[in-house]
Amino acid sequence: MRLRRTILAMAAVTALLATAPARAIETPYDNQLLRLSEVLGSVHFLSNLCGEKSDVWRERMLSLLQAEGPEDERRSNMIARFNHGYRSFQAIYRRCTPSARHAFRRYMDEGAKISDEMVLRYGN
Hints:
It is a single chain. The chain is mainly α. The chain has one domain. It contains 5 helices and no strands. It has helices at residues 2-19, 30-49, 56-68, 72-92, 98-122. Helix 1 (2-19) runs parallel beside helix 5. It is globular and about 40 Å long. 30% of the residues are buried.
């Protein structure tokens, strides 16, 4: 249920960004977008560590990049934050533990919250 809600919320953000014109300057939601990128990287690592062998969260990140259509610097920043989230947990966890599962749930909740806030604040 939580996974489905998070996926739907992130899909809504992707749809929201797809309707927005491309921007060369910073947007009011850049900080949220960067944090969401980091959360996606974290969730991508943790979900694969704990048995979900898929690229669903990486694909969500690619969809987000495509929908946002950021300029080179913003795109690089988003990718760097995704990679930072992934590598941060990769440096800590070698196997799925109760702590890793807890972190996964926390980050799923945070990603859903960020997505919901972005849709509410910046949606049409």
